[in-house]
Amino acid sequence: METVTLTIKNQPGLFLEADSITPDAFAGKKAEEIVDLPVYVGREQFRLGDYFEVSGNAGATPAETKIVVNGDLSRVKYIGMKMTAGEIVANSNADMYVGAWMQGGKITVNGNVDAFAGTGMKGGEIAIKGNAGNYLGAAYRGDWRGMAGGKITVTGNAGSDLGTFMNGGEIVVDGDVDVHVATHAEGGRIIIKGNAKRRLGGQMVEGEIYVFGSIDVMMPGFAYREDVDVDVDGIKGRFALYEGDLGERHRKRKGQTIYAKLYQRIEA
Amino acid sequence: MAEYLIKNGFIFDPVLGIKGDVADVAIKDGKIVETTALSSPKVIDATGKTVMAGGVDVHAHVAGPKVNIGRNFRPEDKLFNCTPGHGIERMQGGFSVPTTIRTGYNYAHMGYTTVMEAAMPPLYARHTHEEMRDTPILDQGAYPVFGNNWFVLEYLKNHEIENTAAYIAWLLRATKGYAVKVVNPGGTEAWGWGLNCDNVHDPVPYFDITPAQIIKGLIEANEYLGLPHSMHMHANNLGNPGNYTTTLDSFKLSEGIKPNSKFGRDQVMHHTHVQFHSYGGDSWANVESRAKDIMGYVNSHDNITIDMGQVTLDETTTMTADGPFEHHLTELNHLKWANADVELETGSGVVPYLYSPNIKVCGIQWCIGLELALLAKDPMRIFLTTDHPNAGPFIRYPRIMKWLMSQEARDQQFDAFKYKDKVIEATNLAGMDRELNLYEIAQMTRAGPAKSLGLSHMYGGLAPGLDGDVAVYDFNPNEPYAPDDIEKAFSNAKHLFKSGVQVISDHEIANNGNKRTLWVNAKANENPQVMRDIKEKFLRYYTVTLNNYEGSGHYLRNPHVIEVDATQ
């Protein structure tokens, strides 16, 4: 694997839209070609080299390319957008849409990310070592195709509207989450190791939510079924199982109605 | 104005009866003229290229409140396809519900110059005109909807044709409308009670009138006035298995009625997006094509014209004044749904839809549309449409031309279906070897729709005196070509002239044109009763006053009035 190192040298006056920071765009290119990739600030187009020092050459394919991004990236959007393979390590906070529509490979952010990380994600892995903003692993505005595959892990807390329209894949949040979890979801699994607030699983059709801590208010559309022993993400515990959203349509399998499942830990 | 001489192209023109002969086309002062009338023209070399009149779209949803609901509630329709302004082109975005700017440009790129908005809620005529005003290049008109209007329901319950006609004339003038549109007659009003009208004899709640009375009455009122276009219908029971019988019952209501129009049309009913109305079977499991029954009727009755409503196998946005149908659709696909009620007039719904080649029913729908066109004995009476955006976006017209002109292209699509055998079993298309030629395509996309609209004195051909609407395509019909070459050439006109102005030059938008808004000013006898009814209904029921209802002045860009004298 070849490594390309980017170091931000100028902060954009507005925000830098840098969907060209992907192993797919870099693959097969030398540093002097990578600096010419396009980035945008507002309606103006610039070169990647206008904002970043670039060193090292990319591998022949995305899978053989690793990108390390250094410096303050809190005004850089779309890092790793639509990437299919390879690796990105961002050693800073990053702005919105990290790993949006990602299909493969791995992104590690050693800091916080803003909203819409993993939007419409289909595969691969995003590891966020700080906090995540709102709409993590959600669908694009208006779209019903949220996260469909892959895995997102958050070491800190996550914001609101986690996993909206989620259809598959897994999101693990070590800390707490804000309101609206898995709204409209039709699949996938969300594990919240801290506390949740309100509106978990609103209009949820299928999929699973696990909460290790407290839930401020349970949705009225979820009904308690039974207590079960669960082994989730390597942690065993006894959980109260709720099913819902009872106000939604649900398909049947072998005569049994399939509900979305919400597990809340009652003892470790 | 500039003079143009388009030299040595292969001309396809049903008006002049030219079937691919090499000839010249002359344009002067916005009109097509004899080549001898030019003095110092700019010469456009069309050697080895196809030349046709500008395309005419008889039915598309391109402007108005429900199109805008589609735009507003589908931001994902604009994801990754917005383009910044450059040169004289403005910023554009959207796929199935494009911005007005993209609508104008994309039609122009296909060589189209006239597009009719297929359903205008009268109460929102101002909005519709504002959007058309912002759609560059194209001449446009809009059809106000009448089939669920309380005035119409009340008058036609007692078969009061003269009053209905007087109301139509008033509403066309108030809304600057072009034709009488009917959508699910009675059914959308019934939707206000949570009901529908499933066939032509299913009575409308409260009003106690049947769709058959509405349809027949509106045809008669349309002919009483002698409007340029005929009554334009979307029948009851759209999109349901077994609905072809409802369609045939609707067709039959036109029997015995003769056209009364000085505008050269021969039909008294235009039935739109017939693909959605040609289903056999009694469930989605056994739905099958009934295109043969439908076309058997159309081919033997020359007082009907139809358009296809061809499914293009895309992700799109359905939108119709057929409110109950859109509810039915959202229950099927579980995607988001918008629904609107328009006071005394109509309603509408909007739902995104994915026509997937992996779904059997979508494959069957695709076959049915093409069967209708390929079974047509007279291509002057069946027009190429997608009911944009309902069966697919209008930018796919060139792809439909490819399917109509090439059995090889159809076979390629069959092979791409997941349930090819089941699709073939439920349809007739696989056994059809007819391949349309460019002359027939010109009939279905130019001369036919222009004649049906009563606009053959302006559009649809290259005869001297017609508007200077001319498209030049990079397509040599005398050289071997692959099916995809058809789609490529007709998606991207090399040159386009609109009213004598060159709006596309060498594939690039060169001018934003002088779009016109067509409307029909029908003068009917003074009718105090109807005027009193209008005043009363506005006073009692409408949320706006008459002063805030009529569209005029700045709402219309370059109004072009078609005058009709129906006083007697």
Radius of gyration over C-alpha positions of chain B, nearest whole angstrom? 22 Å
SSE string of chain A, helices as H and strands as E: EEHHEEHEEEEEEEEEEEEEEEEE
Helix proportion of residues of chain B, in percent? 25-40%
Overall pLDDT of chain B, averaged? 97
How far is the N terminus from the C terminus of chain B? 41 Å
Structural class of chain B: alpha/beta
Q: Please count the helical segments of chain A.
A: 3
Radius of gyration of chain A: 20 Å
The low-confidence parts of chain A are none
Distance between the termini of chain A: 42 Å
**Poorly predicted parts of chain B:** none
**CATH architecture annotation name of the largest domain in chain B:** Alpha-Beta Barrel
Query: Which strand-content bin applies to the residues of chain B?
Result: 15-25%
Q: Please give the order of strands in the largest beta sheet of chain A.
A: 5-1-6-8-9-10-11-12-13-15-21-18-17
Fraction of residues of chain A in helices? Answer: under 10%
For the sheet with most strands of chain B, the description reads:
9 strands, mixed
In total, the number of strands of chain B is 24
- The domain tally of chain B reads 2
Quickly name the level 1 CATH class of the largest domain in chain B: Alpha Beta
**Most residues in contact: chain pair:** A-B, 7 and 10 residues
